Amino acid sequence: MVIILDGKKCSAMRLELLKEEIEDSGLYPRLATVIVGNDPASQMYVRMKHRACEQVGIGSVGIELPADATTEKVLESVHQLNRDTDIDGILVQLPLPKHVDAERVIEAISPQKDVDGYHPENMGLLFSGKPRFTSCTPTGIMTLLAEYKIPLAGARAVVVGRSIDVGRPMAALLLNADATVTICHSKTRDLAEELKRADILISAIGKAHFIQPAMVKPGAVVIDVGINQLDGKLVGDVEYAKVSEIASAITPVPGGVGPMTIATLMENTYRAAKVKACTSA
């Protein structure tokens, strides 16, 4: 019987615990979001983040810029938030419009307020094994694996996708947890054979139902990060119905990784507030 790794349930539990911790702390953490343009998916994600803030007692501020905003205009908003001592965490909603230099924007965020974990300084700390803030989706996955007591030390983990927001930090977190890690991507030879070696398979490539049962080792733990539209339905990278017949554990889409990402963002924001309170005391 396959175990369904219920991110929605785990997220709800962690958010409730976080709410209690924030209430007891006497702190009032605050998160600022910056969104450029009116992409419906991005707007939905930002609304979900603000709702989660309200749920746990984190204040939130939303900055909305027009789709034609220049890189300099976005940077101006980020610099202003960096200077605002009431703001503990800054999240710039990605992807940004193509004409905006996303790399410059991310590098402009204060590393101490980079609750998304994308700043090069925070990435470097992660890869050095001394993380400060780590990317929310990979960290949420690690939390979910821990909640279900999935052993990582010595396990062969295969990450499909090498993006800076999921694939690379995911590999670093797994490596820090003593897993043996392989990263696969579009140039990987014999991809199916690499995937079939995985005790833990994490797919973050954004291709609907790309992962088929023939690519999965029987008994593997399968984590599906993909969010894709197929025939009007939201589906993951994994052919869920078929792969769940051979996996030992699997995340659903929706209700798996997504809720854990938001819970981690809230936890990172609270952590930033705690660090600021300690350093300013």
| H/E element order | EHEHEHEHHHEHEHEEEEHEH
In CATH terms, what is the architecture of the largest domain?
3-Layer(aba) Sandwich
Distance between the termini: 52 Å
Cα-atom radius of gyration: 19 Å
CATH class of the largest domain: Alpha Beta
Main pleated sheet: 6 strands, parallel
Which homologous superfamily in CATH is the superfamily of the largest domain? NAD(P)-binding Rossmann-like Domain
CATH topology of the largest domain: Rossmann fold
Spans where pLDDT lies below 50 across 5 or more residues = none
Shape: globular
Strand content: 15-25%
Describe the overall structure.
Helix content is 42%, strand content 16%. By secondary structure, it is α/β, with parallel strands linked by helices. The chain has 2 domains: 85 residues, Leucine Dehydrogenase, chain A, domain 1 (Rossmann fold), CATH 3.40.50.10860; 123 residues, Rossmann fold. The longest helix has 24 residues. The N and C termini lie far apart (52 Å). The model has no long low-confidence stretch (mean pLDDT 96).
